[in-house]
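Throughout our pipeline, every protein is held as a single compact record rather than as scattered files. This encoding replaces a full spatial description with a residue-level series of whole-number codes. The remainder of this section carries one protein's record, kept here as part of the documentation.
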Amino acid sequence: MDGAHMNRLIESVHQDLLPRFQIESVDPHDPVKVRHVPKPWQLLGAGNYAAVVYHPDYPEFVIKIYAPGRPGFSEEVEVYRRLGSHPAFSECLYANDGFLILKRLHGVTLYDCMQRGLRIPKQVIHDIDQALDYARKRGLHPHDVHGRNVMMYKGRGLVVDISDFLHEEACSKWDDLKKGYYWLYRPFLSPLGIRIPYFVLDVVRRSYRFLIRLVSRLKQLKSRRF
């Protein structure tokens, strides 16, 4: 992408997108709420900190916009700096004023694969494992890697959210997802091609989050006793 093309995109973000884009964080444990996206910008998705949009004139890039008051912008910029170029990760091409311009990754999240009944081959899991190992070698700590933050594209795995990779505390989400993949998905769900409704997936997600908090709280209580 030449400099003039990038400059036009940056100008469009500042002049056309940001002044009319409405986003808020209602609950830090749930995706942010996007209230309005000015045309012709299109919403691609929303996470706990930010939302991602793109412009049809610049389909090879996405704009990640942090919700007011949500942390993580400068940390995400640093993570992308350390990652450099890797096929399983996006790249940050510009960052300023609470938004990033990223190389667009195409694919379907593993969460959406479950809803659509799409088969998830083992290669996807292997690719993501290798990508996370690469990140660790770059001094990062893969964190908050779950079904909404990883994708499948043409049978290969991608990691689409690296915003928490500076967090040093242990995170078992990816390991737990892999257990579900090998113990439940491959032997039972994959052969049947079952489509799991979003409300069921959401119940599983919330139940898992509750159990993680409960286990953490029990560990804290146990440590205080001893």
The chain has six helices and ten strands.
